[in-house]
Design brief:
Oligomer: single chain
Number of helices: 12
Number of domains: 1
Distance between the termini: 45 Å
Largest sheet: none
Radius of gyration: 22 Å
Structural class: mainly alpha
């Protein structure tokens, strides 16, 4: 009696994924609430970051933003991409792959969850203010002129989650997912273009430092490596939980005929 019920729950593919994403978002909100009142820590850590960039000779974010600000159309595009090219874009690709390319969906989801979990730990232990909140540096918050809702007024955004930049990290994961889906030149072009465009966007809009982007790429690489390992070896979890975390439909009951493939040819057709 219990087994069919478990199978029905596992088989609700879309609600199941919404539930998993909701749980992940809940963890993000917990971290946001913990970091919301740590503005002084975030500014002090941002100073450490700037000092590190100066020592490395890469403190040039202001130069990049100044070059972009002379092109208002480019500023608007990069500001829009900073928002729409992140979670909205990920959601669109996720819905498509969930029903059309489930293996790629599970891989990308696992990579994002793993990288996001690492990022949450860093956000709690090392909050960092973005360039647009760094006093006296001269950075412009370009999103203020594009969106009516400002990030500092939002109750769903962690302003002190600059390091690592998961805008950058998730863009890399989505780029690799595009390569898995399309392959060839098209896939390779998307794999390179998505993280490159997001890099320009996060810096030109005053939302991230160069080091944020580099650490975001590193965290994403770790997340993808873990996703590849799970894809190859699975998870050391009980079977019902493994099935719940998989985007594949549950296996048919013992003794039932396997489902027919859409492209299968019936015996009657082969005898014609």
């Amino acid at each position: 009696m219990m087994r069919p019920t478990v199978n029905r729950v596992i088989g609700l593919r879309f609600p199941r994924e919404v539930l998993l994403i909701g749980v992940a978002y809940g963890f993000y909100q917990v971290v946001r609430s913990v970091s919301a009142d740590r503005a002084l820590d975030a500014l002090e850590n941002a100073k450490l970051l700037v000092s590190a960039e100066r020592a490395l000779g890469i403190f040039s974010e202001l130069n990049l933003q100044a070059a972009v600000l002379s092109w208002q159309g480019l500023v608007d595009f990069l500001s829009l991409w900073y928002f729409w090219g992140h979670f909205p874009f990920i959601v669109v690709i996720a819905v498509f792959t969930l029903f059309r390319r489930r293996g790629d969906y599970v891989w990308a989801r696992n990579a994002i969850f793993a990288a996001g979990a690492i990022a949450l730990v860093v956000y709690v232990t090392f909050p960092v203010a973005p360039p647009r909140l760094f006093p006296g540096a001269g950075f412009v918050d370009t999103l203020r002129d594009v969106f009516a809702l400002q990030y500092e007024d939002s109750t769903v955004v962690n302003q002190y989650a600059a390091v690592p930049s998961m805008h950058q990290g998730f863009a890399l994961i989505m780029g690799v997912a595009m390569y898995r889906m399309f392959g060839g030149r098209k896939g390779a072009a998307l794999m390179l273009a998505l993280p490159a465009l997001m890099f320009i966007s996060i810096v030109a809009t005053g939302n991230h430092w160069f080091i944020d982007a580099l650490l975001g790429l590193l965290v994403a690489a770790i997340g993808m490596k873990l996703a590849f390992l799970v894809e190859r070896h699975g998870l050391p979890l009980p079977q019902p939980l493994r099935s719940f975390l998989s985007a594949d439909p549950p296996p048919p009951p013992p003794g039932s005929a396997p489902p027919a493939r859409p492209d299968a040819v019936s015996p009657a057709e082969t005898s014609r």
